[in-house]
Write a structure and sequence with these properties.
The protein has eleven helices and 13 strands. It is of the alpha+beta class.
Length: about 325
């Protein structure tokens, strides 16, 4: 049975039922049918019915009011199919009954195979070192390049944001990247050192280099089927990366397959000038070996700079500490 838009609240106080809301006179979004498995950090997912194609599998993300979504990117991606990217079908503002206000809704094709990490963790699928290039790296790198050709960066590439588009779980796609500002929902592990130092709302669009770095971190997570630095605080994680380098921090104690050491060193370089770009990644995919240059670690001072009772030898770590305690930093500056 189809849904009918009435935006009405029914019930007697418990188990309230809200009628579906209509977007663009076309898509019925049902607040009584949440789809938590498709939630994004800054947006909740709900079932959608396409009034022109009742058999179409869709879901909608309802964005957090007051948090600016990437409407410019939505305009580029709508109905523009890019292999390796979750298809964006429609977007727009409408009245959302659960919140009693106007919200932004974004409609996507529903990835019928669910999240890749969930399937891997539950043993329902596998992705070994021989499959990861053809089934993920090649498609993801092509999607990143296609986005860059449209002057768009994904900025939300992370292991938990990968989906199987089809029910048979043969097609992996990058998840949505438009429900929040660029990089806003990214854990710092998936951000370059420069972006990780910024406040989430001010990380900016960046360029393809940030997406390639995040792709490298995602590959490590998929290979190991876990976060290699789980349990570290953000400060511990950031300190390790500044002092030892990102590749050493993520892969130093892990058993990385030999064929993937070269591209991971290139993608995870902490120097934006030496980090692999799409050309180097494409050459590696085509079988042409390269030797990624590894820049030296951040400079270390001979004498420590003391701030809030702690000693700092790295300018980056001191800048990080300043940003976390601005009142005291202002006094020193």
């Amino acid at each position: 049975m189809g849904l009918s838009p009435n935006n009405a609240v029914t019930g007697d106080g418990e188990g309230l039922h809200l009628g579906p809301a209509l977007l663009r006179e076309h898509f019925l979004i049902n607040p009584d049918a949440p789809l938590e498995e498709y939630d994004s950090p800054s947006a909740k997912a709900y079932a959608v019915e396409d009034r022109r194609d009742l058999g179409r599998a869709l879901f909608a993300l309802i964005c957090t009011p007051g948090l600016p979504p990437r409407t410019d990117v939505m305009a580029v991606l709508k109905d523009d199919f890019i292999a390796g990217l979750l298809p964006l079908v429609e977007w727009g503002t409408f009245f959302w009954p659960p919140l009693g206000q106007t919200c932004m809704a974004i409609v996507f094709e529903r990835p019928l195979g669910g999240r890749v990490l969930t399937a891997l963790a539950e043993g329902e699928t596998s992705l070994n070192q021989y499959e990861i290039q053809s089934r993920f790296i090649e498609l993801a790198s092509a999607a990143i390049s296609e986005l860059s050709n449209r002057s768009v960066q994904h900025r939300a590439i992370r292991s938990i944001n990968l989906f199987y588009l089809d029910e048979k779980r043969t097609k992996i796609v990058l998840g949505e990247c438009v429900s929040a500002p660029a990089g806003f929902d990214q854990p710092i592990a998936f951000e370059t050192i420069e972006k990780a130092m910024s406040d989430p709302g001010g990380r900016g669009e960046g360029d393809i280099s940030e997406d390639i770095f995040a792709l490298g971190v995602t590959i490590v997570h998929l290979l190991l089927k876990k976060d290699p630095i789980a349990g570290m605080s953000d400060v511990q994680h950031f300190t390790a990366r500044v002092e030892h380098g990102t590749y050493a921090t993520l892969c130093g104690k892990a058993r990385i397959p030999m064929p993937l050491i070269e591209p991971l060193r290139g993608m995870l370089s902490d120097s934006s000038l030496e980090r692999w770009g799409p050309e180097q990644l494409s050459l590696w995919i085509d079988g042409k070996r390269q030797t990624p240059m590894q820049k030296g670690l951040s400079p270390i001072a001979k004498e420590p700079f003391r701030f809030t009772g702690k000693a700092y030898l790295s300018p980056r770590m001191l800048a990080w500490a300043f940003s976390k305690n601005t009142p005291e930093a202002v006094k020193i500056i």
